[in-house]
């Protein structure tokens, strides 16, 4: 189940002066993260801070079952968000869920101007760009997995490269 922080943020309401071609966001921010790495620490603190500021934030709180298809509601929430904060962590690329979210985020970044804000949490931005270190190992496992489509892996790699070139925050310690 997704958790939504609520507010009376102007970006979440439509005004009579806005044209029908202007997108109407249901969320200010979509949080993409690997629960194993950051759910109980960094992401919880970030989510709480956003909520306290009145920023409407989508964060998936369900335990995602491995091997299951990503929820259509999750992809819809990405499309309905103005910003995406991607917390790239050590195990982020090990998760097909995270990579599917990432590919959708990059697609929306290119098509609907979704603003992407990466956080490099205990990972080096150059490892993200070049898919080296732990990230390379994770992709090697995906490529060996007969349940994973090669086309998907290529899309995930391209999305990760794109995000790796975006200036973001580099968090190493706290």
UniProtKB/TrEMBL annotation:
<protein>
    <recommendedName>
        <fullName>TIR domain-containing protein</fullName>
    </recommendedName>
</protein>
<dbReference type="InterPro" id="IPR035897">
    <property type="entry name" value="Toll_tir_struct_dom_sf"/>
</dbReference>
<feature type="region of interest" description="Disordered">
    <location>
        <begin position="1"/>
        <end position="22"/>
    </location>
</feature>
<dbReference type="GO" id="GO:0007165">
    <property type="term" value="P:signal transduction"/>
</dbReference>
<keyword id="KW-0520">NAD</keyword>
<feature type="compositionally biased region" description="Low complexity">
    <location>
        <begin position="1"/>
        <end position="21"/>
    </location>
</feature>
<dbReference type="Pfam" id="PF01582">
    <property type="entry name" value="TIR"/>
</dbReference>
<feature type="domain" description="TIR">
    <location>
        <begin position="25"/>
        <end position="174"/>
    </location>
</feature>
<dbReference type="InterPro" id="IPR000157">
    <property type="entry name" value="TIR_dom"/>
</dbReference>
């Amino acid at each position: 189940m997704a958790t939504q922080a609520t507010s009376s943020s102007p970006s979440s309401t439509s005004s009579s002066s806005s044209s029908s071609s202007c997108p109407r966001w249901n969320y200010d921010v979509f949080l993409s993260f690997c629960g194993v790495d950051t759910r109980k620490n960094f992401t919880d603190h970030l989510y709480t801070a956003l909520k306290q500021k009145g920023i409407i934030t989508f964060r998936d709180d369900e335990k995602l079952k491995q091997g299951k298809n990503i929820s259509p509601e999750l992809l819809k929430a990405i499309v309905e968000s103005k910003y995406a904060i991607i917390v790239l962590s050590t195990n982020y690329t090990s998760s097909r869920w995270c990579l599917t979210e990432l590919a959708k985020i990059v697609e929306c970044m290119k098509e609907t101007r979704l603003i992407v804000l990466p956080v490099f949490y205990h990972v080096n931005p150059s490892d993200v760009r070049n898919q080296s270190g732990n990230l390379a190992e994770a992709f090697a496992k995906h490529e060996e997995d007969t349940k994973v489509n090669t086309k998907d892996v290529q899309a995930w790699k391209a999305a990760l490269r794109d995000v790796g070139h975006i200036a973001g925050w580099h968090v190493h310690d706290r």
